[in-house]
């Protein structure tokens, strides 16, 4: 699909949660997230379901960049909380990936995000220099779209605290992660789960 050999398409779900229960179910999204529960593998302690409902349940679609010379990876994060009581909720990552893969190569993640737009488009996921000044940190950034537009604190930088291989086809699907807040006020914890693709392509 892409001209660059070290870009890999990716679709994944993400849950952003707060340290304390949200005041109202609809404070942060268009639908309640109370029914959105993570289906985590048994016999592991790296990813542990939070005791509070998620603030956001999102589908991220975009590319992983495994080079240091190409533009940074960018995922567009769209809300899927309204699907959590429908059959589509369990397969939305695969549907999103298949749709993305079927698009013409000239269609970029930015093109797709522009078509989705707010309120479904919550924000963007990419990497920035870590607060320490060395290395990179993943950032979920809601500051430029939707209800959080122009809210400079509507972001979270994540610090990885849990990592498991994808339960299905880990050679193709990137790891599931748990991350704590390292900076920002959007959420206190992030889970990247239900990944589809994203591993480095074979050269």
TrEMBL record:
- What does UniProt give as the signal peptide span? 1-25
Q: Which Pfam families match?
A: DUF3455
Report the InterPro entries cross-referenced here: DUF3455
Keywords, comma-separated and alphabetical:
Signal
- What is the name of the protein in this document? Malate dehydrogenase
Please give the organism: Mycena metata
């Amino acid at each position: 699909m892409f001209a660059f050999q070290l870009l890999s398409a990716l679709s994944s779900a993400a849950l952003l949660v707060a340290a304390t229960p949200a005041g109202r179910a609809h404070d942060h999204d268009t639908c309640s997230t109370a029914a959105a529960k993570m289906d985590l593998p048994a016999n592991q302690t790296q990813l542990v379901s939070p005791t509070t409902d998620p603030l956001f349940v999102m589908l991220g679609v975009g590319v992983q960049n495994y080079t240091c010379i190409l533009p940074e990876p960018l995922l567009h994060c769209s809300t899927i909380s309204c699907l959590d009581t429908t059959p589509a909720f369990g397969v939305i990552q695969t549907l999103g990936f298949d749709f993305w893969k079927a698009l013409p190569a000239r269609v970029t993640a930015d093109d797709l995000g522009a078509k989705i737009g707010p309120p479904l488009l919550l924000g963007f996921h990419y990497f920035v220099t870590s607060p320490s000044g060395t290395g990179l940190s993943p950032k979920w950034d809601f500051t430029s779209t939707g209800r959080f537009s122009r809210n400079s604190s509507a972001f979270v930088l994540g610090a990885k605290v849990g990592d498991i291989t994808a339960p299905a086809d880990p050679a193709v699907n990137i790891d599931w992660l748990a991350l704590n807040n390292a900076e920002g006020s959007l959420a206190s914890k992030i889970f990247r789960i239900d990944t589809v693709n994203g591993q480095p392509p074979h050269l």
